[in-house]
């Protein structure tokens, strides 16, 4: 990577590029630079986590102890457990979906670029969104399966550009390539209190958990009212005291936060001073088997219309004429290149080899490394960064800037893969096919 020029208005630098075939093209939570530690969060994150209110039909007060969690998975749909959406407490009705950290964009805040440059910040707000419709999965609606999911349609789409949904999984992260349970520790995100009330002061809590062998799920209690199919769609983990609907996620190496499972709730953590047998491990509903139904319900497309590894069905070719396709904002990140949207198996050949905050230093990519994606992270969507000549040996990136009167930071990331290894594997494949012939 080589530096070209610099002035107070814009920055230029050069990178190397390559061409490949497929991409998944939709917006969801993509933050490559954030890997939280266990415990309370000290910064605004995971704004897609919400809570479901039950409202008393006579006096309008919320339920005093049951507050399920929900997850925003598109701008107009949230995901919950089927039991939370269907089994409403007596005398109550479905109320609002509440997002305690609604991150407003500059349009909603009514701040200009000059205001931002002068140090004006857009404070987070609380969003109360009425529910327009409830979509229960057929296995619960018709067969009463205990472990299942539901979709809640919001009355209007969420408007803020910074309220990105959580990503749906592209593959089953519970098992590894060999079909065994993954040993990877996952992130469990939730509000620390059982009944969130004051969302202005409410924090989020991060817990790292691991998947347990399936035989431990039924060791202490027998699973009732669940078909064999839904038993295969549930898992159990370490930890305790989980709340219904709280998500467990994996942070993909591309930066995407993908939902692995929803907590089914359960008993609180036992008193450590009392000697008892270990409690039953908490149960979770795996999300990957429900992705075709979820995406079909949201988009209205037949399940068979979706690509194998792309739940939203966006498949686009890639060549030099697409320098200006898929170049735009996703939350606080500006994406330059179609492969910035790659996830799952399509992104296994990608790795991040360059990451700089604020200052841009000239660097040289490793020999044989080819860059296919450039990401620019900024606090606000200022102007339109540009990446072009992606399919040539030299790629150019332009970042517009303005004069600031306060501390201002941005990030630039370049993603590539080892072209030498790809060429060697291709040659081996051609040789093997020749032998077979």
Give the topology, please:
Layout: E1 2-6, E2 10-15, E3 39-40, E4 49-56, E5 69-74, E6 77-81, H1 82-86, E7 92-102, H2 106-109, H3 113-117, E8 125-136, H4 138-143, E9 149-154, E10 186-190, E11 205-209, H5 228-231, E12 234-236, E13 247-251, E14 257-263, E15 283-286, H6 291-299, E16 328-330, E17 333-336, E18 351-357, E19 369-377, E20 386-388, E21 395-400, E22 411-418, H7 419-436
Antiparallel strand pairs: 1-2, 2-21, 3-11, 4-5, 4-7, 5-6, 6-9, 7-8, 8-9, 10-11, 10-13, 12-15, 13-14, 14-15, 16-17, 17-19, 18-22, 19-22, 20-21
Question: Which short descriptors sum up this protein?
Answer:
single chain; mainly beta; Thrombin, subunit H; six-stranded antiparallel beta barrel; 7 helices; 12% helix; disordered N terminus; disordered C terminus; serine-type endopeptidase activity
């Amino acid at each position: 990577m080589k530096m070209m020029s610099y002035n107070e208005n814009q920055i230029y630098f050069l990178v190397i590029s390559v061409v490949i075939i497929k991409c998944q093209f939709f917006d969801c939570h993509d933050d490559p630079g954030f890997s939280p530690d266990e415990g309370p969060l000290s910064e605004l994150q995971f704004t897609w986590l919400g809570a479901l209110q039950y409202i008393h039909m006579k006096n309008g007060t919320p339920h005093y102890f049951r507050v399920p969690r929900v997850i925003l998975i598109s701008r107009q749909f949230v995901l919950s457990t089927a039991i939370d959406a269907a089994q409403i407490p007596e005398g109550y009705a479905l109320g609002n979906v509440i997002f305690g950290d609604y991150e407003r964009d500059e349009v909603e805040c009514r701040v200009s670029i000059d205001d931002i440059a002068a140090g004006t910040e857009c404070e987070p707000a609380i969003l109360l969104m009425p529910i327009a419709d409830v979509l229960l999965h057929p296995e619960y609606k018709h067969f009463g399966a205990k472990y299942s999911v539901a979709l809640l349609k919001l009355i209007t789409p969420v408007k803020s550009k910074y309220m990105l949904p959580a990503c749906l999984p592209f593959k089953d992260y519970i098992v590894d390539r060999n079909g065994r349970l993954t040993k990877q520790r996952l992130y469990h995100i939730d509000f620390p209190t059982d009944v969130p009330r004051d969302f202005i002061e409410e924090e989020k809590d991060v817990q790292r958990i691991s998947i347990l062998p399936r035989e431990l799920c039924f060791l202490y209690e027998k699973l009732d009212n669940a078909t064999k199919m839904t038993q295969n769609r549930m898992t159990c983990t370490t930890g305790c005291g989980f709340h219904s609907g709280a998500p467990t996620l994996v942070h993909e190496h591309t930066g995407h936060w993908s939902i692995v499972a929803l907590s089914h709730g359960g008993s609180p953590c036992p008193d450590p001073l009392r000697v008892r047998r270990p409690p039953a491990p908490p149960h979770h509903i795996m999300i990957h088997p429900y992705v075709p139904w979820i995406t079909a319900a949201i988009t209205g497309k037949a399940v068979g219309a979706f690509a194998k590894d792309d739940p939203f069905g966006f498949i686009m070719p890639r060549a030099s004429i697409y320098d200006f396709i898929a170049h735009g904002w996703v939350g606080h990140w500006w994406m330059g290149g179609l492969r910035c949207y790659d996830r799952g198996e399509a992104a296994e050949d990608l790795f991040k080899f360059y990451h700089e905050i604020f200052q841009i230093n000239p660097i040289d990519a490793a020999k044989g490394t080819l860059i296919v994606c450039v990401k620019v992270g900024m606090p606000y969507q200022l102007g339109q960064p540009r990446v072009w000549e992606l399919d040539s040996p030299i790629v150019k990136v332009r970042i517009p800037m303005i004069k600031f009167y306060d501390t201002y930071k941005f990030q630039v990331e370049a993603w590539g893969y080892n072209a030498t290894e790809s060429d060697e594997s291709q040659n081996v494949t051609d040789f093997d096919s020749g032998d077979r012939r």
